[in-house]
Amino acid sequence: xxxxxxxxxxxxxxxxxxxxxxxxxxxxxxxxxxxxxxxxxxxxxxxxxxxxxxxxxxxxxxxxxxxxxxxxxxxxxxxxxxxxxxxxxxxxxxxxxxxxxxxxxxxxxxxxxxxxxxxxxxxxxxxxxxxxxxxxxxxxxxxxxxxxxxxxxxxxxxxxxxxxxxxxxxxxxxxxxxxxxxxxxxxxxxxxxxxxxxxxxxxxxxx
Length: 207
Description:
Blueprint: H1 3-43, H2 58-71, H3 79-87, H4 89-94, H5 98-126, E1 140-141, E2 145-146, H6 147-163, H7 165-173, H8 177-206
Antiparallel strand pairs: 1-2
């Protein structure tokens, strides 16, 4: 492979990462709206949701993008874990029908989102910040994850990929490559700065 081909391949990967970044940010905003609306409807509370100052809940976007990278989609199992699963004889049988694929995908995304939520919660608890508390929920672990919300996460992730993912990805493909890269870098930088600032302030308040 020539240096030009290697460079082009690297740029293709970067463009792909930028598209996923933009989709993740949009989903994070949608997650913030979902949390905001749910809190207003269920608890009649208007308080802000999440740690960040910007209207985004990154855990939503992170879970969706992580699921895609690891497992692909329920219609087309793939990714870092899904591809080896498809090549395995047992894995082929497990995802041999659409119903089986969706069920296995639900199980995988439930586990992945639960682990992500647990690690996030533990990391913030370590610096004195409690982002959420499921202590009063049945079958909870450290008050950070619980069975009910884990199953809900898996259901929502699977439903999202079955209904909205392809549309959002096609929209991302329509963004000119240079614009996509610039937008992704700028927005990711702003959100990262917000994340660092909010974490520092939250840890200081917890002292």
